[in-house]
Structures are given as structure tokens and as C-alpha cells.
Write a structure and sequence with these properties.
The chain is an alpha+beta fold. The protein contains 19 helices and eight strands. Helix 5 (about 80-105) packs across helix 8.
Length: about 550
Amino acid sequence: MQYLIIGIILILALLAIRLSNKHGIPALLLFIVLGMGFGVLGLKFEDYEFADGLATVALMVIMFYGGFGTNWHMARPVAKEAIILSSLGVITTALLTGLFCHLVLGFSLLEGMLIGSIVGSTDYASVSNILRSKNLNLKYNSASLLELESGSNDPTAYTMTMVFLSIIMGTELSIPLLILSQVALGLLVGFVFAFLFGKYLRRINAQPDGLSSVLMAAAMLITYAAASLLGGNGYLALYILGIRLGNMEFRDKREVVFFFDGFSEIMQIALFFVLGLLSDFHKFLQAFPIALFIMLFMTILARPLSVWGLMLPFHLKRNQLHMLSLAGIRGAAAIAFAILVVNSKVPFSMDIYHIVFGICVLSSLVQGSLMPPASRKLEMLDPNDTVLKTFNHYQDKAELGFLETQIHPGSDLVGLQVKDLRLVFDFIVAKIERDGQTVVPRGHVVLQEYDRVVLGGEKHFDQSGHDLTEFTIPPGHRFVNQTVKDLALPSDTLIVMVQRSRGEIIVPLGDTQLIEGDKVILLKVDPSKNRKKRLMMRRHKS
């Protein structure tokens, strides 16, 4: 019977996703409502221990894949702003909310600060879901800023929650040491395992049977466990691991993306459904007024004050600040932290779970639904591009690949029309960037000096995994300051492309000089394999 119920739930979840895409209602909110609906119909579930375990695993996947999907090239220009909002922004929002709960709602100071800490972070799953489903390509790189902030701010909220919970429980510990160990060890473990697994991924052969996905899952589990055992923040370590692995090229990456796309979707459906099922509808109604007051305070005052105050040195535009303030949606992480607090068995003067649950439901409903119309009202929407480019998943899943090159002064291409390029292969001119503006590459458009031309075509996936080798020339390497013709490479090896550190692509000639930091693509042919292929062809012809 339980398998029938699970199957029905998954079908209803798919219908909820379609309803979300059609009417703009956040899909994750619908999963929660679906869980609440089954609870009202009599499917009782009160196992907070199981919910805690599920929430931990789901957050591991969400945090890792959030980092994996973050396009660092797009996010790097706004990294400072995002890191400040994901750390100081969470602290400021949590403290302001805690004071409101204490001074206005009558909670004790410590309980108020605990509530503020639990709901202090912006939910990555909700934010990314709305950005992608509604294709909200926000101006000024704001989408990347929100993705990086919401993906990396849960560790701060988790640390604050542990600090105030420990104080309430009377645990004897050094608060500064706890914070330092959480952050420092989380960063250390994340970077160390990102380096190790990244290096290993570049060395292994292709895994056509899907073993790369198993390796990625193992990397995720090992990194989280190592950080937790050492006293560091496992979620922070996972996010760093995800960013590193997601922004490097390795064999079978496309298969890994498809696997984790489905797996993370299932985990989100399960998590939000169980969180809704765990709630009691009558307790939810009792906690609703308090949850509503806290949500309104956070939306109207706490989040905007944090954003405007902390972003003051960066001189962001007014409409951008309004958009960032509205996007502070509370979600799965906050409810998971509330379950953690409930499982501590500490008696509280209020129903923490249903208050936090109510805040997240209202935040997802109000802020999530307002983001699409607000982006248009604030003139923050850029209709000429797609927000999907800010996610690594977009190009990793695509059958098309893109190359970018610049028209240098004196090039034979200067003065040619696009239609005269006579591209005889299956490539198209996707777009032209000129003086910071995008030019639609119609046939009559004339190429000019310093134009950046983006070519699109079908990706090539090297099945053997041996022909093409990529490496960056380190200091002191024998290639440094050598011309290609002086390298004395074997006859079966050819340098096919060089990329300079500034992104410049060079087609190597004999007198091309290599410098430190160049990324070199080598084509190396295995003569024995070529002989085998020739023999097979001869046998086939005969």
C-alpha cells in the first residue's frame, strides 16, 4: 500500500511542477501544501528523527549541487557582495529578527535570537527554482549574486542556530572557538577535498557505465563526513566542493549533471513533502499570526536594512537593491534547522517548528510570487538573454557548444559581412559583442575590429578520453618562453589550441611563443590504436 501512495505522491508532484510553471506559484510551496493535504486526509507522520535524517541528506545534495551548478565565471564579479550578504547579511537579519521577537512579540531574548538564527538564511532551492522556472534574467549580474548568496549562506545560519541552542541548553563551550572551527575547518576541508577529487577526476579514464556519478556521490559523502568529524561545517565544505567540481571540465560531466538533476529533484520533492506532512494543520493555524508578523518584519524591514546597509560601499543601483531585498525567501534549510532544535528536547515557550514552518510557507508564497512581476516593475528584467547561462547545468546538458573569438586589428575578417564567412561546417554565428553591446548577427552585419564573435555548434565528446589533453603551463615548466616549433614534440603529438589567462584564444603556429599560465590543448594519437583501426577497416573492406 505504501508503494502505491509514494507513486501517487510523485505523480501529484509532477502535476504541481506543471501548475507552478503555468501560474507562477513556487513549485516547492506546492510540495509542502501537498504534504499538508495528505496530513489533513489522515496520513499521520510525527517522526522528527526520520525527518531530521532526510533533511540532512537533502540539504547535502542541495548544497553540493547548488555549488556544482553555480557558474563561477558569471558569479566572480559579484562574489564580494554575495559573500558579505551570505555571512554578515545573515547575522544582521537574524539579530534584527531576534530583537523583534523579543521586544514586540514577547519572546525571551535567547528564544527570539534562536528563531532569528533559524530563519536567517535565504533558501537556495526556492530562489534558483523561481529564477529558472520564470527565466528571470536579472540585470547587473543580480541573478548570479542571488545564486551565490543563497547557495552559501546556510552554513552561517546553521552556526548561529548551534550557538544560541548551546547557550539555551547551558552547554559549556567557547562560542568564538565554535564559530571559528565551523567556518575555518569547513573551508579547509572543502578546499582540500575539492583539490584532491578535482585532480583525481582529471586522471581517471572515461566511465561510460555511469560510475562518474557514483564517484561524485562518494566525494559528497566523504567531504561532509570529514568536515563534521573534525568539527567543521559540512554544508560549507560541500558548497566549495561543488563549485570546484562544477566549474572544471571532466569526462562524463554531462551524465553527472543529468543524474544529479533527477536526484536533487527527487530529494527536494521528498523533503518538502515530508516537511508539510510533519506539520499539524491546527498547530499551523495557531502559529499563523506570529509567523505572519515575523515574515512581514523580515520582508519589509530586516532583509532590506541588511541589504541596503551592507551594500552601501558597492554603490549598487536602487532598483537592484529593491530586488535583492525582495528575494530573501525562507525555505527548506530553516525548517530543517527547526527540526534539529525540536530534536534537542529543550522545552520552549512556543511551538518553534510551526512558527518557522509558517514563516517559510508565507515567505515562499508572498515573496516567491512577487519576484516575477517585481522584476518587471523595477525594470530589472533583461529580456535579451537567459538566466540559464548563470547555471553550469545549462551548457553541460546542451548538445551545443560555444566558442568565442575576437577580431584583431589587421585580421582578414575585418570588413566582411556575416553572410560572407561561408562557414562550410555545422557552425553558426550565435552573436557578436561590440563595445559592450550585443549585435544580432544578421547576414548584412559587417565585422569590425575588436568584435567578439560567438560561434555555436554541436559539442564533441571525446569517447576515448585519451586523444585530447589539457593543462596549464606552471612556473618553471620547459614550455615557458619556448616557441611551438622549438618544443621538439613527438610526431604523434600536436598543440591544437592555446588559451591565454585573459581568455584570448590562439591558434598556434610554429613561431607562437608559450608563456607561463597558458592553457594548452594537446592532441595525442596512439599509433597502436590507429594500426588496429586500419586493420579492422581492411578486414571490413575485404
